């Protein structure tokens, strides 16, 4: 007899947690008071402990998750990542088939759960990179612009202490647009925005292309590598690498 595997739980995505909290904050109980976790538990017909766990980003039974989401007037796709839902449904389908080969089924389920775990780590790393970019974009652009301009003028023959300080602010504003583009790409999880921005000339290329390459390279090697562990900064590094390689080719 095959051993019955405990149903896999699902958890809210980072964006889903924001929507859950916003939805709860906007609702009232029957007496007109702010909706508490206990009140939500009554609406969703479960314990408040389960509700609190779900709001902390901890996985709960899929049916319970759906009940909480529905009680708040949201949709599963508003709260759960598509990958989370797909893996959960796939696991349930594997369990429902009950082919008798429990070992093979267990391997398939473990593989799906591992893939989802890796995806979640990547998603969390992207979120951290986004927050870091948002908080430091101006300073990063300023330092990168100064470093790139200094390198550019230092390499000029017969350079006699050229004053490029007035150009730093202008160039840093251009680099900020590149960083904003990277932020947007991390947010949507796609590089398509970068390709579109390049094709439609939505990012500035008003000077020697090598300056942009050097500025982005400075951010990658002098800032990202020192602020994140390799696996945490991977998505951000890939975005920077893509621009560094594509700018000299596409313009």
Number of domain modules: 2
Q: Would you tell me the overall average pLDDT?
A: 83
CATH topology of the largest domain: Globin-like
What's the CATH architecture name of the largest domain?
Orthogonal Bundle
- What share of residues are in beta strands? under 5%
- What order do the helices and strands follow? EHHHEHHHHHHHH
Q: Report the CATH C-level class of the largest domain.
A: Mainly Alpha
Q: What helical percentage do the residues reach?
A: over 70%
Oligomer: single chain
User: What's the total helix number?
Assistant: 11
What is the distance, rounded to the nearest whole angstrom, between the alpha carbons of the first and last residues?
65 Å
Could you explain how this protein is built, in words?
There is one protein chain. This protein has helices spanning 14-25, 37-44, 48-55, 62-71, 76-79, 82-97, 102-154, 165-188, 192-199, 209-227, 234-250, and strands spanning 9-10, 60-61. It has eleven helices and two strands. The longest helix is centred in the middle third of the chain and has 53 residues, at 102-154. It has two domains: 9-98, lambda repressor-like DNA-binding domains (434 Repressor (Amino-terminal Domain), Orthogonal Bundle), CATH 1.10.260.40; 122-250, Globin-like. It is mainly alpha-helical. Mean pLDDT is 83; it is low at 1-5. It has a two-stranded antiparallel ribbon.
